[in-house]
Every structure is written in C-alpha cells, then in structure tokens.
C-alpha cells in the first residue's frame, strides 16, 4: 500500500495532490484486494502507524464489509477476520490509548462483521470479544464501543431497516438471549466493580451500554440486588452519577407489564430514597440535577402510562398505581421549582401527564386540588424573568428562557382547562396583590402579574373571544366579574407608566387582547389612548416598545373604531409628528418610529377617518390632510432625485419615495364594502397619488426601488377602485413599470396584470390587446438572453418568469379575453401556442405544466370545433396538443409520486378528454391509426386506453396514472 499517496487527502489546497489522493482512495475501495493491503498495513504497522493512514485503512475495510464481505469466499472471510482480530489485539495491548475516532471506526467495523457472521460463521464472537477484557482498560474501552456499535446496527429504532435486515436482527437478538447475554451482563457488573475508582470513564460507558441493551434483554439480569445496589452507589459518586441516572432511566422505561413496571419503579424509588439521592436541594451540580430530574420525569410518565394500560375493571391495581403517582408529585414540584430552568423543564412531561391523568379520572380529590394549586404557584413563580435577562441585546440565554416560558405556558393552559375556577382564583389574587403595590415591587413580579392576566385570555374559554360577557352560568359570571376586576385595576393602577420595557410591552399586549373590555366600559378608552400616544407607548424611550405599540395601536383602533371616532381629530393632531416622513439626511438621529411602524400608524389614522359618521366631503378632507404632507414631500424628493448624481443619495431618496408609496397604499386598507373609497369621496385623491408616483418612476433613476412602490400601490387600488377610474392610468403606469423589462421586472409586473384582469375581465380587453404583443415579446427576449451556466440566481429568476408567463396566459383564457388571442397575427399566435406546448412538455415545473394544460384545454373548448377558431387550430390539436398529453407524463422529470405533478397529470387528462368531446371519434381514429403505432402499444392496450378515454373523467384520471406508471416502469 502506497501510504504516502494518501497524505493529499488532508491537503485540499493542493488540488493536484488532493485529486490524486482521492483517486487512490477510490481505487483501494473498488479493488478486490484493497482490503487485503489495508488489513496488512494495519496488522504490520500496528498502533504506531500514522493516524490518518489507520483511518483510511479502516474506511476501506468498512467499505468492503458493507458491500462485499457477505458474498466473499470462506477463505477471504477468514482472512478478513484474522486481520481484524490482530488489529483489535494490537489496540488492546498498546501502551497509550488509541484516538477515539480510530476506536469508533474499529468498533463499527467489528459490528459490520458481527451482523454478517453471527451466529452461523462466527458463533464464538461474543466469547472471543469477552476474552479481550483481560488485556486491560484499553481492551475494556474497545469492548464497550463495539457493543454500542452492535446496538446501532441491530437495535437502534431510528435507523430504517429492510425486512431482511429486520429478520436478521431478530435472529441475532434471539440467539444472544439464549447464548450470550448472561455472560455480557456478568462482564458489565465486573467492569462496574473493578473500574469504579480507577477508570470512571469506563464505568460511565458501561452504564451507557446497559441502558442501550436493557430494552431487549431479560430485565431480571439487571433489576436485581447486585446491579441496583451498585447503580445506587454510583448515584452518589460525582464522576459516575450522571451516567448512572441515565442508566436507571432506561431501565424503568423498558416495556413490560403495568403492574410489574410499577413494582420495579417503586422498588427503585424506595432504594433511591433510602440512599438520600432524591433530595437534591443542597446539590449545586446542575448537570447532575438535570439527569436526576429526567429520571423523576421518567418515573412519573411511566407510572401514568402503566395506569392508562390497565383495564378500567382492574380498579384495585389502578388505585395502587394512582397512589404511586400521587406520591411522586411533591418530587415533581421540587424539581419543577428549581432555580435552574433546564432542571425545571426536564419534568414538564410528568406535569402535563399528571394533569391529564386527573382529567381522565373525573372527580378531583382535596389532595389532588392541593397539588394542582401548588403546581400553579410554581408555574407563576417560574414565569418571572431572571434578573440577568438582557432585554437590550438578547442572546442564546434569553432565547432559551423564552422557549422555557412557552413550555411553562402549556402547563398553565392545561391547568386552566382542568381547574379553571382555581386558576382564576389564584391568578386574581396574584394580579390584584401585585398591581396594588407595583411601585414597590420588583419589575419581574409586575411583569409576571400582567403576563398572567394576558395568558388567561388563551387559557380560559370565551364566546367569540369576549371574556366580559356571556351566558348566565355561575362559572361564566364569576369569570366575567373577575376579568373585569383585573382589567379595571390594570388600566387605573398607573402600571402603564412602569419604567421597565417588559412591563410596558405586556401592558399594551393586554389592552390589545382584551379590547372588548373597552366596548363594555368605554369610559376607560381616553386613558388607554393617552397611554398609546404619549411616552408610555409610541413615544417610549425604548424602541421595542415604540415599535410594538404602533402595531397594537392599529389593532385596537380597528377593533374599537366605532367607540373611538369621537376622538378622531384629537388623535390625528397628536399623531402629527409621528406621521412625518423621516428626512433622508437625518444623520445619526433615528426617527421615533421605523418605516414599518409608521405604516401601522397611517393605517390606524385612516381607519379612524373612514369610520366616522361624517359627510364624504369631511372624510375626504381629513384623508387629504393626512396624505398631502406625504405628497408634498414626494414632489420635493422627485425633483431632488432628478438632480442627484451620488448613487448612495439616489438610493436613499428612492427608498423614501417607495416608503411614501407604501404609506399611501396602507391607508387604502381603511376602506371596506360599507365605507368604500367611492362612498368616502376619495377616488380622485388616490388617482392623483398614483399619477404622482408614476411621475417619480419616470424620473428614470432607481427604477427598481420606485417601481416596487408603484406596484404595491396599484395592487391596493385594484381592490378599492372600479375599472372606469383605474383603467385610464394603466397604460402610463405599465409603460413606466416596463421601461427596462428585465426578467425580475417582468416577473413582478405580471401578477399585477393578472390581478387586474381577474377583477375587470372584459373591461380589460382594449388594454390587454394593446399590451399583449409588446409584453410577450419582452418576455421571449428576456428568456432567450444568454446567461452564465453556474449563475443559479439568474436561472431561478428565468424559471420564475416562465412560470409567471404561463400564469398570465392562463388568466387571459380564463377571464373572457380569448378574443385578444384570436386577433393575433397567425404567425405570432403560432409562436405563443408553441411556447405553451413547450411548457407543458419540457418545463420541469408541475405548477407551470398544469397551467399550460389549462390553457390548451380552454383553447380547445373555444376553438376545437371547425370554423370556431383561428385557421389551422384543429390541425394544431393533432400535431401538438394530443402528443403533449402523452409526452409530458412520459418525461423522467414528471414524478407521478408528487402531489403537484399529479394535478398536472389530471389537467393533461382533462385536456385530452376535451379534445375528444370536441372532435369525437375522429380523435379515436387518429390515436389508433397514427399516434399509438408510434408508441408500439399492443392492440389490447390500445383498446383499453380508448375505452377509458371515452368513459367519465374520474375513471380516465385513475386509469391514466396507472397507464403512465406502467409505461415508465
């Protein structure tokens, strides 16, 4: 073996040497004698070999073991095993421990040989493996790693096996149970005893092996006095206890009879309790406590699972298990209340399952109620932020706590579903007590109280989300009065002025969640509006608070607009400075609100204006006052953009214009069917706005940025305006948007045209007739431009444009605009039709293919009868459409197991049946005499297909899938 050639594997910068090394490695793998050379290199060189050479040799031997070993001759197999045994012995006897990755690769190689040879060709494998243990600690380590590798190959449920492999693994386990497991377990015990002081890492590894094998071996081999006593002893040893806890967890989660499992768990708990292991209060080793919490969680979950498995008639056994569960709940609460969140979270499954258990049992006892109440107090306490939480610059620790809080809320929700009156009572006491003394309480307590009130909204059921009214049942009335009492205190206590941003945020979240409170008690609305508008809300020193309250303000206005309209002009006057567009040369002074935040404020202002009971002229005046400063600013910006030469400044100006367009578009969301843009007299205001922004686009600078804003505004105006108002502006808008028709620009423009066609349909005919050819020509040109072969981004853009083009044609043929296509010059129409056929067959995008077949079907429906369509269309049906219905599904890229592709298949099938409906037996004759002979189909299959074609649509769809599956197999 030429080991020096392999050095290039670790020199990727030397491309020639690296390529030679890869080629040599591949030769070794593929060569029939590669494994011999590698085996000889290992056995002759021994542990003193270079680590990289060892690893490559083991890789080559692994490749042989996976792919050729099972089919090798007996002599080759013996030779292979000899190399492996000699290498194992060398590793076991070396002075220094081998590198972990070499040990793992060796163990993996042993396991691959094991699954092939045991028990038939190597029945003494386990005995031979056990015999190496006398060679010392290195041998023990390799022995344990080999057992774990065998577990991975034979037992690991996460690895998907073939049926043959599963049968093989079952045979191996059955044989091991009969002939090897007792010896293995004895060796494990010996390792636990012999090395617990001198080599704790070996003992921990042995714990892992026991935990892995316990799932399928006889439980009595481990759950006995000698093993249990040793495991409990190890729970007291700092270097051993984490692995011991995991091992015990695996033992108690082993599948077994419910009563037997309960007895096993109870015996473990008794021993652990007597040993003092279950009292973690004084232990500061959080890593171990997480493992111990996981063990407690497993104990609880497994006991509850045992209770659920017992038949309801076995009442005595069920009661015995229930009592066992109940006795563990105080342990659960102790760990759940830990100051370390990862310890607390480790028992959440037990907590949730316990709540579910009580729900299944029905009546709740006084003891259970007390335990649930204690759990609720733990949840409330653990909800509080840690004093080290960084609200300014959240990192990994903060993300972990946020995730922990979400899991804690699940427990809270489960408690509320089980004992709503208890949760309501405890929450009320905590919220009222804390809010009444919020100024002297830590912010963590205050935030937890407001969060608790907020979470009740999801945890407690309410009719249509209204917690402040409902049926006259006792519990509903209690809940209503309690929620009202808490909300009244929230809005009157002054806590909205708390200096900590976490409290401020939670206050406004509560206000937005319980907006229906203010419809029943509107006298609190002025105070809440003031909080939103002053330094507590959108003028808060904290940018997160300002940003979030801007959004929440728009939500509150949307929900309460009928209650707020009386304050509209006062609110608008207070919003004036927040509605000013930020200057582009603002230096280092950021505006109070970001652009995104400002959109919500503009939307809220527009909603207030439109919701009023005033005359249309008054509404139009207020809307004009709202938007006129924006338009004035845009006029100045457009003039400056035309003069500006600095590209950086040009980009800033364009972004400001785009934001102004977004602001204008956002205000249009205030209109509704009841308060339409026409009814409010605002049509001309928005048409003037659109013309203004089209003029900005025609400046010709930063077209992509400004154009994005114009498209956004047009999308909104299509929703709000009628065709008579909007359509006159379409030609100049389209001309401006398509001034430089790049693939990206065209892809963005087509959805706008599709939206307009879908709404106005036949009204669009003159415009579509005018724009169709220039637009399609631009698309064809853009798609035919050469691009770099490795430019993936540009290729993706082209694919999106092609898909958009087919959707555009689909929109035309589906909305009464076929005359536009019929009026095309025949040569141009032929080019368009061929592009559709090409898309149906060649374009590997099932969504686009489906649309192509929709187009062909619609054209067939309209033009498939003689003299109903353009000249030559019937011939086109037979030369192009019918073949496409066969060629597309036969493509290798047409995946009949993909859901989207099946939809494309269904559309192609429908298209072909549409041809049959229009042309009748003429199609059948064509298929029999001309098309099917080219496919070399048997007469029986031809008859079968033609019969299916003439049947109903569902039958033909199902048949076609089978037909093409057979054809492609």
From TrEMBL:
Summary of the function given for this chain in its UniProt record: tRNA nucleus export receptor which facilitates tRNA translocation across the nuclear pore complex.
Residue intervals of the Exportin-T C-terminal domain: 317-967
Entries under SUPFAM superfamilies matching the protein: ARM repeat (SSF48371)
Exportin-1/Importin-beta-like domain ranges (all copies): 101-248
InterPro entries: ARM-like (IPR011989), ARM-type_fold (IPR016024), Exportin-1/Importin-b-like (IPR013598), Exportin-T_C (IPR045546), XPOT (IPR040017)
Domain of life of the organism encoding this protein: Eukaryota
Annotated coiled-coil segments of the chain: none
One Pfam match: Exportin-T
Keywords noted in UniProt: Cytoplasm, Nucleus, RNA-binding, Transport, tRNA-binding
Primary localization: cytoplasm
Locations listed in the record: Cytoplasm; Nucleus
Record-given protein name: Exportin-T
A GO term from the CC aspect: cytoplasm
Family from the record: Belongs to the exportin family.
An example molecular function term from Gene Ontology annotations: small GTPase binding
Protein's GO biological process: tRNA re-export from nucleus
């Amino acid at each position: 073996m030429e080991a020096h050639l392999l050095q290039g594997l670790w020199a990727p910068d030397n491309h020639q040497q690296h390529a030679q090394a890869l080629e040599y490695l591949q030769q070794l793998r593929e060569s029939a004698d590669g494994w011999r050379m590698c085996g000889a290199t290992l056995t002759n060189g021994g542990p003193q070999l270079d680590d990289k050479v060892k690893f490559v040799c083991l890789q080559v031997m692994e490749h042989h073991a996976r792919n050729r070993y099972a089919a090798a001759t007996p002599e080759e197999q013996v030779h292979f095993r000899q190399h492996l045994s000699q290498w194992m012995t060398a590793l076991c006897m070396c002075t220094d421990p081998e590198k972990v990755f070499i040990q793992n690769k060796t163990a993996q190689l042993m396991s691959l040989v094991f699954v092939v040879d045991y028990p038939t060709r190597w029945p003494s494998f386990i005995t031979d493996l056990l015999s190496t243990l006398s060679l010392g600690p290195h041998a023990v380590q390799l022995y344990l790693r080999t057992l774990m590798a065998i577990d991975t190959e034979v037992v690991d449920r996460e690895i998907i096996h073939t049926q043959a492999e599963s049968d093989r693994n079952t045979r191996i386990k059955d044989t091991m149970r009969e002939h090897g497991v007792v010896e293995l377990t004895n060796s494990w015990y010996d390792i636990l005893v012999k090395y617990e002081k001198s080599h704790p890492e070996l003992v921990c590894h042995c714990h892992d092996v026991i935990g892995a094998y316990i799932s399928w071996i006889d439980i009595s081999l481990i759950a006995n006095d000698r093993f249990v006593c040793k495991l409990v002893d190890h729970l007291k040893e700092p270097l051993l206890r984490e692995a011991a806890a995991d091992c015990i967890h695996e033992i108690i989660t082993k599948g077994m009879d419910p009563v037997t499992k309960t007895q096993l768990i109870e015996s473990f708990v008794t021993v652990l309790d007597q040993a003092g292991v279950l009292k973690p209060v004084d232990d500061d080793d959080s890593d171990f406590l997480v493992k111990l919490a996981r063990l407690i969680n497993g104990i609880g979950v497994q006991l509850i699972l045992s209770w659920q498995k017992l038949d309801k008639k076995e009442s005595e056994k069920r009661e015995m298990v229930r009592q066992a569960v109940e006795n563990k709940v105080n342990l659960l609460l102790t760990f759940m209340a830990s100051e370390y969140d990862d310890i607390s979270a480790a028992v959440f499954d037990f907590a949730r399952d316990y709540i579910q258990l009580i729900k299944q049992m029905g009546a709740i006892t006084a003891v259970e109620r007390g335990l649930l109440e204690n759990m609720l107090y733990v949840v409330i306490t653990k909800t509080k932020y840690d004093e080290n939480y960084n609200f300014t610059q959240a990192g990994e620790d903060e993300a972990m706590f946020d995730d922990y809080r979400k899991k804690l809320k699940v427990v809270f929700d489960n408690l509320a579903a089980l004992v709503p009156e208890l949760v309501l009572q405890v929450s009320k006491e905590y919220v009222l007590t804390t809010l009444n003394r919020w100024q002297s309480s830590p912010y963590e307590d205050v935030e937890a109280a407001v969060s608790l009130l907020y979470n009740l909204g999801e945890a407690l059921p309410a009719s249509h989300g209204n917690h402040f009214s409902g049926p006259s049942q006792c519990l509903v009335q209690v809940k209503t009065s309690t929620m009202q009492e808490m909300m009244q205190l929230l809005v009157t206590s002054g806590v909205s002025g708390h200096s900590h941003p976490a409290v401020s945020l939670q206050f406004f979240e509560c206000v937005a969640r319980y907006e229906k409170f203010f419809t029943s008690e509107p006298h609190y609305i002025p105070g809440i509006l003031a909080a939103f508008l002053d330094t507590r809300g959108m003028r808060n020193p904290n940018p997160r608070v300002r940003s979030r309250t801007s959004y929440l303000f728009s939500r509150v206005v949307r929900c309460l607009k009928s209650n707020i309209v009386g304050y509209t002009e006062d609110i608008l006057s207070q919003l004036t400075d927040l509605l000013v567009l930020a200057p582009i040369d603002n230096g280092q002074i950021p505006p109070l609100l970001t652009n995104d935040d400002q959109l919500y404020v503009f939307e809220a202002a527009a909603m207030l204006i439109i919701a009023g009971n005033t005359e249309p002229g008054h509404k139009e005046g207020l809307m004009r006052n709202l938007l006129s400063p924006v338009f004035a600013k845009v006029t100045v910006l457009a003039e400056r953009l035309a003069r500006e030469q600095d590209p950086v400044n040009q980009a800033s100006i364009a972004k400001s214009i785009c934001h102004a367009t977004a602001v204008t578009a956002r205000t249009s969301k205030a209109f509704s069917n009841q308060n339409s843009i026409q009814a409010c007299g605002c049509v001309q205001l928005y048409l003037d706005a659109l013309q203004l922004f089209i003029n900005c686009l025609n400046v010709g600078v930063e077209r992509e940025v400004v154009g994005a804003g114009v498209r956004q505004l047009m999308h909104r105006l299509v929703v709000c305006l009628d065709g008579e108002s909007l359509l006159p502006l379409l030609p100049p808008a389209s001309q401006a948007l398509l001034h430089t028709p790049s693939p990206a620009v065209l892809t963005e423009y087509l959805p706008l045209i599709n939206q307009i066609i879908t709404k106005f349909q036949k009204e669009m005919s003159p415009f579509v007739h005018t724009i169709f050819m220039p637009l399609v020509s631009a698309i064809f040109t853009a798609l035919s431009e050469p691009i770099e072969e490795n430019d993936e981004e540009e290729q993706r853009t082209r694919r999106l444009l092609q898909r958009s083009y087919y959707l555009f044609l689909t929109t035309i043929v589906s909305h009464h605009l076929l005359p536009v296509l019929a009026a095309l010059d025949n040569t141009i129409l032929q080019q368009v039709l061929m592009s559709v056929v090409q898309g149906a067959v060649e374009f590997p995008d099932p969504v686009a293919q489906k649309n192509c077949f929709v187009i062909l079907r619609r054209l067939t429906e309209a033009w498939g009868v003689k003299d109903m369509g353009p000249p030559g269309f019937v011939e086109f049906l037979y030369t192009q459409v019918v073949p496409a219905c066969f060629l597309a599904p036969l493509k290798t890229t047409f995946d009949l197991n993909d859901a989207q592709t099946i939809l494309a298949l269904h559309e192609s099938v429908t298209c072909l049946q549409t041809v049959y409906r229009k042309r009748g037996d003429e199609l059948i004759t064509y298929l029999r005499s001309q098309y099917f002979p080219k496919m070399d189909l048997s007469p029986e299959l031809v008859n079968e297909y033609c019969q299916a074609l003439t049947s109903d649509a569902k039958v033909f769809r199902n048949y076609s899938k089978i037909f093409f599956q057979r054809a492609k197999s």
